[in-house]
Input
Amino acid sequence: MTAIDHLPAEPVTRAPGLLRRLPTSGVAMCGLALILVWVLAAILAPVLPLDPPNKSFYAALAHSAPSAAHWLGVDKSGRDILARIVFGARQVLTVAPTAAIAAYLIGCPLGLLAGYYGGWVDAAISRLCDVILSFPIIILYVILISTIGPSVLNIVLAVVIAASPGIARIVRGLTLEQRHLDYVAAAQLRRESAVFIMLVELLPNCRGPLITDFCLRIGYTIITIGIMGFLGLGLPPPDPDWGTMVKEGTVMISVHPYVSLFPAIAIVTLVLGFNLLADGLRELALKE
Amino acid sequence: MANDDHIRTLTADLEAKRVSRREFVRFAALVGMAAPAAYALAGTITGEPFAPPAAAEALPKGGTWRIGTRIKDIKSPHTFSWGEQSNVARQVVEYLTMTGDDNVTRPYLAESWDVSPDLKTWTFHIRKGVKWTKGDELTADHVIWNLKRCLDPAVGSSMIGLVKAYLLNEVTGPDGKPTTELWAPNAIEKLDDHTVRLNCKLPQVAVPEHLFHYPMSILHPDDKGVFGIGAQGTGPFELTEFDLGKRAVLKRRTGYWGGDAAIDGMEQIDIGDDPSASIAALASKQIDGLASAYPSQYDALKALTHLQYYDVKTAETGVMRMKTDTAPFNDARVRKAMRLAVDREALLQVALRGLGSVGADSHCSPVLPDYGTVAIPTRDVAAAKKLLAEAGHPDGIEADLVVPNDIDWFQPMAEASQQMWAEAGIKINLKPIPGASYWDVWTKVPFGITIWYHRPLCTMLLGLAYRTGVPWNESGWSNKEFDALLTQAEGTLDLAKRKEILAKLETIMEEDGPLVQPVFRNVFSFQDKRVKGYTAHPSNYFFGWMIGLDKA
Output
């Protein structure tokens, strides 16, 4: 028997079966239920008995409050608020996870490289992250979107630029923690490539905290998209955007509060869903 | 003294009911009849009392009027392009004439004027005893310096667009580019220290109104066209503080020729683009009123019981204008298809909550006295598609519409129009941009929405924006027949004939013009009930000397 036979061939997973044990967490299930409501609404929006989200009902402008015809009322252009919220969920639930995944695709490799190699690679990546993170986040979004213009792609790009340094830092910390463990040494002795070690050995062992962070980050991204919409930097009109809807309603909030209130509730419930899910996952990981 | 021939013509028109009393007063005042006399004569002819706007009430003294507006750069009054700029300067520097909220033009720094029977020779009598801030008297030389400066192409004033037809010639400049110069050496002539004559090459009835165009303020020549703190003026206030984008503070000047203002001063405060911010400022009484309110603010402001509502019907509008040298808008059939595809009544409701009137793509509003009656186009999607097909676009067209986001009713108008155009196979992508950025590109973008404030005559608007080659012709549209008819209309006092010509001009705009212009908005404002003397001016102008403030 050689020395190498004493080393574990398989990495030690930190949170085995985390997702399988999800049903045991009431908090996580509450969050998941909220998310699923919105996911179902988004998927079924075209077949639900809703008005077209961009259609103006001119006759409804005179009586814009919630009514039998328009359950949540109409906005200042006479568009059905319920339809715009439901169709807006499609945008949010597409853009936010896409942006979060894209941020992870950038942030994870950077963090792995920094944590695994250390030295000047770590220093260079960490300083780059420091520079981006030193900008106030909202100002960074405003600068980015004002420069490149509001569009789905550009919002994703802005989130990636703003969020990936934070992800890189988390991954770097986890990698630093892991890289001296035996399973990494075993892989090195097996002459596995650095890329293999980082992606196949290290990254899966970081997944517990990262899954939690991913859920939280989707929530943050939803808030970010809402803020950008509120600042007039949201998705291009006329497609519904929850943040823009909140903003458009503020001018009449003293007399028609529902115009802002309902899309704000939509944002709150969806973000709450992701936060509860993240809390539940964190609890499960800690129990492990 | 008014020209008797013109007054006789107008009187005959009124007696024959070819013109309304209001139109009579407006044009009688333009040709030099004192407005009170014109009102009285109109009442006598028709046998019905016809009162001028209420005389200024005895205003309470003291206090500072705080008004929410936008504070823009004010350095160069002769090239102002925003009414808000002029609202700061107009408290300090004044105009030869003044068009009131009733659209009647009255004497101001010019105490009277005469016009020749052929409407070519206008003689302005400058008010005597008007003192500049430093004590010297306003003279004809000062007035002539200002007139010539505004008409100098190197300055770039929009006055050129207004007076080009009757005071300027088109020439080729030293750089080979077209430019303008006074049509004759004596086009602007000094008769004596208080008399200035304009010798026009063509008849023009609206000269006094042109002299109230907001860049045509009378500055002291020593200031070399630059305005700011310490600038001289003949007006009732002095500018004491100015912070771009924040506020302008004006203090009452003693010894004003028109009598000292009732208020101690005024503070114009920049309230930004956010309509909800100005609602909050009014609700918390941080400001006493708004220079102008938006349709989206109407319900919220109406609910504030300490505010008084003021409104006036106007020719203010947002034109969705197409650059006529850029495809696909270089084809008149495409432009007409764009117009046919929109439902004006629906847009009036969506964009302005009905607080306005529909337009016919000519920029000429029925509230203006020289409006020629034309039919309002009805929506016809099939006809729009047919025109597009004829223009070589059987599958429709696609274009971007640039929407400045500082005018809150533009976005709903653009969004609703987008839906309507889509039904005609016209795919329009909305490109919202900050209002400030829009003014860098307003004459360049192929398709954009531009705000145009009220002017008292259709001919003024058409001359400013659609005559070939003038500085504010943002669409680059050029139509020789239109230019010729416009010049003819400007020199026609006979109202019935003038309206006929205007109807032809409006029809040309509808068939060939560069606009989709579906609505005109009412200008309205809210002021604290303790503000006295305020009236909503159709051009969003306000005058501190008209204002008094009850004690809080």
